[in-house]
């Protein structure tokens, strides 16, 4: 009898795991988090990590153990730069970001992990640079209105909550006025998501 119950329990768990991975599903939720932004450095200046924020919505379409996850959120990027003379300045940018991520999902019973990658398009809606006069002539940033990045990340789902950590590698080169040098903006962010509903 115990052996029969054990086998039956294993079969039910296997069926539950298989159905969770194979049956197409749709999820939608909210997310918010923090990021660390920085420029790639060059001979003119170096950049330190500064904290920013993000908040928005996500959707996840899954089946056969894979999922497609488009997102839409507002991101605040804060960046600190310092020239070779030790003069420090800050720049703040607000953008609407649209990543489209593809990845794999594993786990069952409401707990699982995810890995994913994909492109991100970023549309700048506000630019605020607090630069000193001398410094601004040397490294004033012509931050573009449309930028692209590539995302690498992983996440954990616990019931309706999702925790994600990801790295965004900037693909768009940002020019500086005087020197002609170019740089990229890269981010590391951690976010918490909440699933509002699923189908």
From TrEMBL:
Presence of keyword Signal: yes
Keywords: Signal
Signal peptide annotation: 1-20
Domain Outer membrane protein beta-barrel: 21-173
Name assigned to this protein: Outer membrane protein with beta-barrel domain
Source species: Mucilaginibacter yixingensis
